[in-house]
Amino acid sequence: MPIPTWMTDRLPDLTRDQFERWQSLLEERTGNHFSWQHRSILQAGLVRRMRELELRSYDEYLNLINEPSSHLEWTTLVENLTVRETRFFRHQPSCNVARNYLDTLLESSDRSSIEAWSVGCSTGEEAWTLAMLIHNKVSSLGRVVRFGVTATDISLEALAHARKGIYKERLVSSLEPALKERFFQKAGPARVQVVERLRERVCFARVNVLDLDRAPMRNMDLIFCQNLLIYFRRWRRIAIIEQLVKRLAPGGLLVLGPGEITNWQHPELEPVGNDQTLAFVRRKL
Ligand SMILES: C[S@@+](CC[C@H](N)C(=O)[O-])C[C@H]1O[C@@H](n2cnc3c(N)ncnc32)[C@H](O)[C@@H]1O
Q1: What rounded mean pLDDT belongs to the chain?
Q2: N or C: which end of the chain has fewer CB within 10 A?
Q3: Which atom from ligand 1 is nearest to the alpha carbon of 210?
Q4: How far is CA 115 from each of CA 27, 102, 268, rounded to the nearest angstrom?
């Protein structure tokens, strides 16, 4: 059977005007800012989806996306355009700041519950990392401490993967043997799954960080928001961080990715950690 020409023909490059129309739509709806230098990433994501839909024009696709009934198509496109790279214990210095914070919080008080939040959790590795850190700390104490981790992202596909908690075995190969033994079980050839007692602590939900003013999260003790804000313009980064601060409990810890905001301070935040981390504690009133 002959291969249809729409599958093999090279689609034209985005013109400057087309690029700007797509750029502003994506930024308005997701906050992600594509610069002209990164247009090839945007173009590749659009083309991939346009081929599936057998469309040959960027403008035609834009019209389709703008139709009120195109909600589902929009979510599919977002899957194609978001960067989801992540790892367990991705940034050790940030994990160490979280560990120290948990030590102090739980050893200097009789706290009986902890709430953490992974913002832009992708396929879940960051959320499970927080759950493992908290579980390890809590189980070393001689008292009951309940804990929960909320993990949010814009990508439904990433969240579905995260919820299952199943990963290629090689993705956990560099973890300490004690962590692997405690928190992962075999789940078929070359696959492992996060154990039930950790899965029941983590709740995944779709939240667009542009809508944080409507998000129900409150009084979080620990918030991780790493490798998400780098795709946003500075004014949006600041607006999002301010929303996160409002959702942090007094004394709570906010951990951003190093360098994700510079020359910035907040009256309620005290920087903590070291020059390899970007972390703040919300001052107690
Ligand atoms: C590079 S991953 C970072 C994953 C993890 N935080 C880490 O540091 O390993 C960025 C994640 O942010 C998500 N994201 C992008 N725009 C978003 C938005 N507007 N709201 C919520 N999540 C978003 C993407 O879907 C992706 O999963």
Answers
A1: 95
A2: N
A3: 19
A4: 30, 11, 20
